[in-house]
Amino acid sequence: MSARLLGAAQYAGNPPWWLVAEGFFVASVATLLVGGASTAAVLVGVTSSQAEAAVLVATAAVALYLLFLRAGHLLVALLVAVGFLLSPALSALAADAVLSGAGRTRDVVVTAVAHEPLDRPAYRCSVRLQDGSPVRQRLWRGCGPEVIPGDLIGMVYDPGDRVAPRGLEGRGPLLRRLAWTTVLLLVFAAVSFVATVRSYRVSSVGSDQPRGSGSASPAR
Question: Do 215 and 37 form a contact (C-beta atoms < 8 A)?
Fold first, then answer.
């Protein structure tokens, strides 16, 4: 049961060097895969839900690969759970990066403020441009109980229309999102590494040989 949940890890003492190296390689590729999927999805201009779906697809690909290696089912389940948390975090951070690099700011007029206690944050502002053109995306950053219709609030938007516009906010929330996403990526990489290292059935005799390089013992 332990081997099924956590991986066989049938080696004496510490894992062999080649297995540790492969664990680092798989962890690096897996982390780049989920991060790249979100970044690529945002850059091609898909919706945030589609960008999140791209991260989930990348996470599923990593999970299937680990199952192919006979990794522990509990570790694979943990990786998938972290992937679900990474999905919105990565897509939001990639959109923030686009707006920080290529975004432009302008003041918009608040037309309505909706209080949505079942959602977070609880306040969302419907806005329009100062020439009267409506903005389809409701803004929650920069919106709050102190904002009333007719107020001007700041909005940052991408001239290339790759990501939805957002309300202006301070650097504090952005740094917190960056820290949270970084922690999740590190956990994702760590779980990938441990699952890979524990997935192989390496015997104590000849445990320094990479998979497929061992020689068969002569029959007696």
Answer: no
Longest dimension (CA), the chain: 91
Q: For residue 140, what are its two tokens?
A: 């929650």
Count, residues in the chain: 220
**Is there a contact between 148 and 113 (Cβ–Cβ < 8 Å)?**
yes
Distance CA 82, CA 53 (A): 14
Is the pTM higher than 0.90?
Answer: no
Return per-residue pLDDT of the chain as tens, 220 residues: 666 666 666 666 678 888 889 999 999 999 999 999 988 888 887 778 888 899 999 999 999 999 988 888 899 999 999 999 999 999 888 888 888 888 899 999 999 998 876 656 578 899 999 888 889 888 888 888 899 999 999 999 988 888 888 888 777 778 888 999 999 999 999 999 999 988 876 544 444 555 545 443 333 2
